[in-house]
Give the backbone structure.
Amino acid sequence: MEMTRSQGIAPIEYECKKCNDIGSYIVKMKRGYFINEIEQEEEIYQECECNKQKKINRLVASSAITDEFQKMGFGNYQTDDKDVVVKKVKDTAYKYYESFNDIKGTRQNSIALIGQPGVGKTHLLMAVANNLITRKMVPVMYFPYVDVIKEMQANQLAKEHVLTGRAKNVAVLFIDDLFKPSGDRPPSSWQQEKMYEIINHRYLNYKPMLISSELGFGELVKINEALGSRIFEMCEGYAVHAKKDFRLNHRTRKIFGGV
């Protein structure tokens, strides 16, 4: 049916009014000289803020970071009335984030927060990851050790290959709860080999990692010397080992009279 003149044509609705969803817009720049007493200008294309936000949204979506974890930042990690080691954990994480651009291509380009549960290791490394994504636009993959290993072991070889490939090659890998203890059972040979494959690849290619674990460096080395020593070397400049002390656990500190 032919549209009548009175009906008109519905105007196009753009999400971004500044660039009309193109992703860039024209800016006039002064060229610094005059012709016939008229200052000359040139038109250049400038990336629109909406395009940057779309890139950030894609990075967040590919990171596997949950909505709840996306809320974790440095500002909402409280250290008031906390033990000095808790403050050191936060200071080290923030220092690492601030130094990232300078150290990302060096041997000591990674960070490890290890030891006592409940001191905020995951929160602070998630704060690093979130800020790398949203402020520096660095791709990050969240690798919750227990969940991803279970997924890899579920006899889905194609999926295991994809996960391993991403973990080896993403710009920054966040391994959360590496070798989390399961009773008295040590990590299986397969688990050790899989993590060594990933970590050694990143070690050889100078790819940064964010690592949390309840195990200390000595325990990691005892489990697998080659793997543990590589982690230590990569994280030596940015590492905190919180010694076992139930009073430091923010989830149980009231029970044990934590400080």
Notes: The beta strands are 24-35, 38-47, 111-115, 140-144, 172-176, 209-213, 239-242.
